[in-house]
Amino acid sequence: MSLRATIADRFQRRARTPARALFRRVFVINGLVFALGTLVLALSPATVSARIRLTEIPVLAVGLAVILAANAVLLRSSLAPLDQLVSSMQRVDPPRRSDRIDDHGNGDLHHLIASFNAMLDRLEAERTSASASALAAQEGERQRIARELHDEIGQSLTVALLTLRRAVDKAPAQLREDLHVAQETVRASLDEVRGIARRLRPDVLEDLGLHSALNALCSEFAQATGIVVAKRIKPPPARLDPNMELVCYRVAQEALTNVARHAAAETVHLELCAADNRLTLRIADDGKGGVVAGGAGITGMHERALLVDAVLTITSPSGAGTEVRLVVPLRTASGAE
Q1: Share of the chain above pLDDT 90, in %
Q2: Do residues 176 and 168 lie in contact, with contact meaning Cβ atoms separated by under 8 Å?
């Protein structure tokens, strides 16, 4: 790049700074208003003598009021985008997607609005990347723990169960009852370990897809809590993107966990349907409601939703239950919209 082009580029960037643009806008508006006021006074029949008469004061007051009113109207409409910018800054919330400011030909403020929107794009891209890395590490750790539970602790408990079974056959009658109790305790522990491993690493999700995984999740939840689960699951015909399936499964899992812990509900409705190129997951209960959207579980659901450009909303009026709704732009496993 030549020296002349470099100097011209620097001059152009300096001329487009928000401060210079705002100064130029205010200066031009004031100049136009005062010029128009001077022209009107010059062409009007009103005159002012060298020593102002009392009858001329209302004419001057009206002229000044008109000039000030025109100046205020023009400046207010011209600087209105700054109020939108401040309001948007106050609404920025890191775990959630922020709205962009619409630029409807705002003249010299276009550069300021475009820079703010670009900053939001960069922040959300960095946040999504960081969340994706953290959640990928979390899923990897879940799989490692599940594998160790299944392969090591599970097998150790299986060996202990077989050993107790042989011991029962050889033990005298007065010890068999105690050995039976120990055998049932080990068997229950083995079942619990296998259940934890399944929750940490849902193999059915990878093998059979979201439909089967949600059905299994609802069955386990109903069996463990006694809460009735009303299902209406209608997935798209093709397999979804693996990240989308995992996000939907984890959101449903976290929502059901919160129902079991906090809702005091009798019935839960779980719905999954695809329409208008969107996948909608809805979990609603008839519990006490009043959920405060600030816990670690809810924050994790919001972070997962951002990974697949989804919108997560939680509605929880006090005494009227809680509804968790996840709306995801539909993508199949091949990545096509």
Answers
A1: 8
A2: yes
Query: Would you call 257 helix, strand, or coil by DSSP?
Result: helix
φ and ψ at 282, to 5 degrees?
A: -135, 125
pTM of the model: 0.60
Q: Of the segments 100-109, 314-323, 326-335, which one has the largest average pLDDT value?
A: 314-323
Which of 26, 57, 90 delimits the end of a domain?
90
* Element (DSSP H or E) covering residue 302: helix 296-307
Separation of alpha carbons 105 and 111, rounded Å: 11
User: CA–CA separation, 74 vs 309, rounded Å?
Assistant: 40
**Residues forming beta bridges with residue 228, ordered by sequence position:** 267
Token pair listed for 22: 């705002």
Distance CA(280)–CA(299), nearest Å, equals 19
What local confidence, expressed as pLDDT, does residue 327 receive?
92
| Total tally of structural domains belonging to the chain | 2
- Specify whether the CB–CB gap between 282 and 313 falls below 8 A: no
Is residue 20's pLDDT more than 80? Answer: no
Return the closest-CA partner of residue 286 out of 211, 221, 242, 228: 228
Select from 47, 72, 90 the last residue of a domain. 90
The pLDDT assigned to 107 comes to 56
Q: Is residue 173 part of a domain?
A: no
Could you tell me the CATH number of the domain that includes residue 329?
3.30.565.10
How far apart are the C-alpha atoms of 103 and 83, rounded to whole Å? 13
Residue 324: the pLDDT is 92
Rounded Cα–Cα distance for residues 255 and 249 (Å): 10
CA-nearest of 268, 184, 271 to 225 is 268
Let me know: does 108 contact 21? Beta carbons within 8 Å.
Answer: yes
Residue with tokens 């023009």: 74
> Is residue 124 included in any domain, yes or no?
no
Residue 37 lies in a domain: yes
What's the chain's average pLDDT?
Answer: 76
User: Which residue range is the domain that position 15 belongs to?
Assistant: 3-90
Work out whether the CA dihedral 7, 10, 16, 17 comes out positive or negative: negative
